[in-house]
């Protein structure tokens, strides 16, 4: 059954960033923007995130489009040497991507109090592609473009679905039961980081903290378990811990 572009997200921002960082631990975290901006337009931001994974090779780039363009969906990169559109900020680039999906999926005007950021919005035959599958041959000329996006999404759901436990209802005492610890279903850190000994005493703790998105590897794809941390790095880790504990369903 075809998958509509319009709709509410199923995957959470926590699941999106955990999936991305398993492959590219140094990738920037824009997951919350995909969810919130997608909701603003009624577009599946979780699947749009998977589209960007496909377009940017897990934010490693390597093609014509450069990271500094903030263009995570190849908008305007129509072939040859054309690098495509440039956006002033990552958030603007993501909103332009969502707008372009909205143009394909809907014939309605842009939502109230929004500014058109997608430079190719008016070039789209409005509503011509209401499903992800129907983007093939339209957004990109490659075979099975829409199916490739959905394959990434389905893999994300299959591997990350258990990492965000559902919200617990309040009990009769008026308190909310504690959220259970997410199960460990990710790739072992000893396979992701060459300098993590699978038999070391600290490995289970590193595994959990990486699964929760509190810490990640360095740009050399190593964890550096014996290095000292700066106060700035500690601040980042504590903030990530705060997000994972207090906002598990964003």
Automatic annotation (TrEMBL):
Region (Disordered): 162-190
Pfam family, one: SLH
InterPro entries listed in its UniProt record: MGlyc_endo_b_GlcNAc-like_dom, SLH_dom
Domain SLH: 189-250
Taxonomy, superkingdom: Bacteria
Protein's name in the database: Glucosaminidase domain-containing protein
Gene source species: Tumebacillus amylolyticus
């Amino acid at each position: 059954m075809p998958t509509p572009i319009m709709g509410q997200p199923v995957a959470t921002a926590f699941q999106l960033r955990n999936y991305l960082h398993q492959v590219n631990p140094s990738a920037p975290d824009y997951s919350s923007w995909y969810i919130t901006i997608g909701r603003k337009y009624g577009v599946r931001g979780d699947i749009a995130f998977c589209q960007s994974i496909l377009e940017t090779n897990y934010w490693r780039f390597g093609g014509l489009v450069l990271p500094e363009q903030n263009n995570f969906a190849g908008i305007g990169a129509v072939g040859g040497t054309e690098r495509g559109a440039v956006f002033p900020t990552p958030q603007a680039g993501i909103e332009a991507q969502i707008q372009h999906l909205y143009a394909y999926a809907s014939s309605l005007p842009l939502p109230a109090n929004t500014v058109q950021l997608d430079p190719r919005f008016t070039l789209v035959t409005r509503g011509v592609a209401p499903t992800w599958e129907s983007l093939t041959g339209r957004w990109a000329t490659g075979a099975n473009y829409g199916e490739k996006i959905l394959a990434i999404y389905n893999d994300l759901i299959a591997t990350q679905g258990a990492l965000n436990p559902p919200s617990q209802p309040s009990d009769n005492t008026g308190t909310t039961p504690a959220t259970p610890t997410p199960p460990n279903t990710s790739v072992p850190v000893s396979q992701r980081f060459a300098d993590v000994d699978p038999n070391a005493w600290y490995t289970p703790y590193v595994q959990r903290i990486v699964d929760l998105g509190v810490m990640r590897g360095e740009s050399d794809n190593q964890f550096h378990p014996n290095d000292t941390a700066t106060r700035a790095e500690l601040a980042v880790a504590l903030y990530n811990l705060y997000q994972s504990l207090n906002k598990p369903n964003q």
